[in-house]
């Protein structure tokens, strides 16, 4: 059999890590079953990463196939006609050596909607040749990424139904893999056995080589913003959905002498305004935070897991995650975790046996901690701009009832605009903590634990092996691949998208950080 992995790019990040770990699991599970592995994408990965990937399984024939037509449509100057022509030629040439029915295509993140041409042409080419296709969804274009709709329209999408037909393809060659049970239940309601839950592969770190630990410690000692402070780390890129101002607020409240560190930079142009505004505010007010500390890379930079291991604690303040890798990475390296309780993620992890001693739903802020009249105007302007960008059929959805029209006594910090969040951060930390203590009853206990170095570590349960070991991952992947499928109803793709949109809009108003790229 031949395995063809497809992604828009192989930049550092969560999807690339899934590819790396997943390939190792699949190739190790049945040695000799896979004759070749091809990585196809819009840009080539770093040479060092590609060589390390190949070195893990030298018995397999490896191939790299790159064409810009596979990348994000918004980052390309190709016309629609040129893109379609290049994609058809690309798949025809790539698939030509494989006998019919002999290849499996592992397509990553088609639901992100960054290149519907890629998905459509691949599905058609693969189906013609009898190849089975795993459409592995990590994110959704409509999951608080509504700017995608304008992008989809610019590149030929005529309706929501047309997009649904590509993203939720019902062709019998296609299987859909999703990374949390909530999405699996919604898709499964309409697509049946075509859908499988494939939780990400994570393993406990039994030991970290001393050289990597020493490199990470030395790097922290030399960092000009840290200067010997204890470090709390958010292992993430500078993205709006990571809600990083909340991580800074918690650090200032719970460990005033500490420094917050985040690892990556922004992942796309639309995230740059948020990253720039947050970075500039931190510099201006001299807040103890090193944002995007590993973004530049370099030969002396530590790896993220080693940096997590030498940090005091891990924070995860995200508004939205599909799987929530940092929940498990903190347990894997044996560091305490302070995290938001995300309803799409935590139930799955608890079912695997994980416990999270320092978890919260929201950080509540009295409305008096900021100029609420100005914030309400910002919320209304942002909402109006965001609603205009929605597909026309959704602009008058009954879920879109502004909550800020009444005068609240208190509000979730994650429900503020970035300007509102920065206004709260400008208050002296002791003053804002005292004002918010009664609304956040866990605050004082965690502050005392942090001050004594007694935050609790999430243990790695033995039961997790059943779900996230390499062998379990490979078995789930192959079971989904081998399923015999009954054709779903003709309108299944449209119905599953409607159900997913309903779920998304139900919480759409809570988080203005996600409404638009600009702060």
Automatic annotation (TrEMBL):
Keywords from the named record: Transferase
Protein name in UniProt: Glycosyltransferase family 4 protein
One MF annotation (Gene Ontology) recorded for this entry: transferase activity
Biological source species: Limisphaera ngatamarikiensis
Domain of life: Bacteria
């Amino acid at each position: 059999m031949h395995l063809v992995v497809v992604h828009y790019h192989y930049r550092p990040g969560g999807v690339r890590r899934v590819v790396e770990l997943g390939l190792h699991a699949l190739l190790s599970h049945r040695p000799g079953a896979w004759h070749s592995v091809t990585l196809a994408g819009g840009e080539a990965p770093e040479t060092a990463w590609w060589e390390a990937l190949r070195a893990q399984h030298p018995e397999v024939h490896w191939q790299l196939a790159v064409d810009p037509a596979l990348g994000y449509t918004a980052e390309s100057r190709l016309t629609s006609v040129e893109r379609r022509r290049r994609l058809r030629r690309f798949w025809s040439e790539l698939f030509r050596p494989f006998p019919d029915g002999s290849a499996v295509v592992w397509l990553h993140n088609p639901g992100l909607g960054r290149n519907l041409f890629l998905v459509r042409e691949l599905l058609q080419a693969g189906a013609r040749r009898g190849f089975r296709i795993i459409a592995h969804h990590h994110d959704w274009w409509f999951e608080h990424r509504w700017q995608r709709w304008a992008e989809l329209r610019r590149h030929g999408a005529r309706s929501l139904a047309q997009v649904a037909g590509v993203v939720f393809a019902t062709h019998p060659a296609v299987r859909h893999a999703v990374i949390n049970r909530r999405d699996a239940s919604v898709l499964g309601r309409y697509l049946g056995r075509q859908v499988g839950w494939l939780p990400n592969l994570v393993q406990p770190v039994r030991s970290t080589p001393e050289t990597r630990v020493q490199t990470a410690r030395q790097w922290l000692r030399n960092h000009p913003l840290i200067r010997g402070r204890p470090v709390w780390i958010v292992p993430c890129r500078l993205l709006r959905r990571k809600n990083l101002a909340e991580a800074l607020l918690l650090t200032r409240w719970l460990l005033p002498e500490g420094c917050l560190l985040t690892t990556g930079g922004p992942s796309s142009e639309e995230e740059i305004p948020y990253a720039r505004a947050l970075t500039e505010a931190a510099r201006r007010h001299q807040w103890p935070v090193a944002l995007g500390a590993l973004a530049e890379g370099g030969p002396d930079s530590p790896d993220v897991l080693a940096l997590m291991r030498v940090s005091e604690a891990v924070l995860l303040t995200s508004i939205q995650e599909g799987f929530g890798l940092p929940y498990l990475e903190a347990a894997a390296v044996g560091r305490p975790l302070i995290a938001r309780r995300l309803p799409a993620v935590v139930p799955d992890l608890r079912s695997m046996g994980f416990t999270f001693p320092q978890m919260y739903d929201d950080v509540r802020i009295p409305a008096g901690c900021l100029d609420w009249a100005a914030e309400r105007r910002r919320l209304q302007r942002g909402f109006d701009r965001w609603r205009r960008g929605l597909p026309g059929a959704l602009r008058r959805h009954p879920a879109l009832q502004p909550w800020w029209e009444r005068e609240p006594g208190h509000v979730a910090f994650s429900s503020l605009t970035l300007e509102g969040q920065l206004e709260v951060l400008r208050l002296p930390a002791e003053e804002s903590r005292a004002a918010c203590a009664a609304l956040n009853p866990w605050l004082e206990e965690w502050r005392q634990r942090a001050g004594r170095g007694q935050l609790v570590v999430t243990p790695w349960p033995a039961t997790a092996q059943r779900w996230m070991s390499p062998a379990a991952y490979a078995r789930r992947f192959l079971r989904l691949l081998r399923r015999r499928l009954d054709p779903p109803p003709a309108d299944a793709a449209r119905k599953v998208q409607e159900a997913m949109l309903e779920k998304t809009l139900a919480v759409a108003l809570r988080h203005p950080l996600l409404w638009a790229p600009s702060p």
